Amino acid sequence: MKDKLTENDTCTRDERLEFAYSIMAEKAIAEILDAFEFEGIQVSPLKGALLRRVLYDNPAERIMTDIDILVRRRDFRYAGKILEKLGMRQDRNAEIVNHPRAYSHSHYYKNGFPLVELHQAAAPMAREKDFENLVFSGRHTAYPTDLFPQKCVNLPSPEVQLLILALHFREHHLLVEKHQIEDIGRLCRRFEIDSSELAEKAEFFSCSFALWLLLQASGEPSALEISNKIATPILRSLAHPLLFDSVPGGYHLKHSNTAPRSVTLALRGLIHSVYSRDSLTESVVAHLRMLLFMLRNRIN
Fold first, then answer.
1. How confident is the model over 25-55, as pLDDT tens digits?
2. Which of 79, 201, 212, 246 has a 20 to 30 Å separation from 229 between CA atoms?
3. Which positions ≥6 away from 62 have C-beta within 8 Å?
C-alpha cells in the first residue's frame, strides 16, 4: 500500500482526504492488532479492515468508515478492556439505539482514531460456537502470507467471508453500504468460490435468503451464478419484489419515504423478524438474546 502521495499523483480534495483517512485507519488497525497480540487474544478483521487489503490494488480506494474486529464471545469483555487501555471509550448508548441484532457489537471511540466496532458471535442460537470454529481456524491459503504480521489474526476462507457479509446484511435490515455490495462482487471475481460449500454453510447458519439477496444485489455475473445454487424459499422470492425496492447498497421497504416513521419502523421490525432469517424460531430467540445483551451492557 502507498503511504504517501507524490507530485505526480492527481487527486481531488475528497480523494486526498480519503487517502489520509486510509493511512490513519491502517495505523489504527496495526496498533489494535499489536495490543491483542500482546494480550494473546485471537481476532479476525472484518469487512473493510481485511477486504480493502485483499480486493483492491490500492486499499485507499475502498471507503472505510470504521474498524470492525471480531473476537470470541469468551474474550469479548476483556477485548473491550484492551481497547480502553489504548485510550478508547465505549459508547454504551450505541447498543441501545440500534435495532436488536444477533450480530452483536460494541462501539469504541478515541479522538484521532476511526470508530472501532468490536464484534462477538454473528450466528444464531446455539450455532455461535460453530461459527467461531469457522472463523478462528487460522489463516486460509487464499490470502498473502504477509497480509498481517500479528500471529493472533485469523483469516477465514472467502466462502466464510461471504457468509459473514450475509449475516451482517441480514442483521442490518437487508441494507448495507454501497461499497460493501462492491466487496461482494470483487470477492466473487477474485476467488474461486465453492458454491456447494457456501450454500451448505448458509443453510446451517440460517442466512440462505439473505445471502441470495446480497449476491443478486451485487449484479456481478459470477455472484449471480453462485446465487443460482443457493436454495431460497419460493414464497420469499416471490414476495420480495412486492415488499422492497432495490437501491444502491441493498433494498428499501416500499413506501418507507411516505409512510409515518413509526409505521415504517414497526413494519421493518416485523419483516426483519420473520423475513430475513430462514427460521422464525431462530429469529425470535436471537432478538431476545440481543435485548438481554444490551440490557446487561447498560447495567454494567
1. 888 999 999 999 999 999 999 998 999 889 9
2. 246
3. 48, 51, 52, 55, 56, 179, 182, 183
CATH of the domain at 287: 3.30.460.40
Q: CA dihedral in degrees (282, 154, 222, 203; nearest 10)?
A: -20
Q: Which pLDDT tens digit goes with each residue over 81-108?
A: 999 999 999 887 655 444 444 346 889 9
Percent helix, percent strand, percent coil in the chain, to nearest 5? 55, 10, 35
Burial class (CB in 10 A: 0-12, 13-18, 19+), 273: middle
Provide the residue type at 11 as one letter: C
Assigned domain for 3 exists: no
What grid cell was written down for 38? 500482546
Whether the model clears a pTM of 0.90, i.e. scores above it, the answer is no
For helices 128-135 and 158-171, give the axis angle rounded to 10 degrees: 140
Written as nine digits, the cell of 19 is 487517502
Which residues form the domain of 276?
13-299
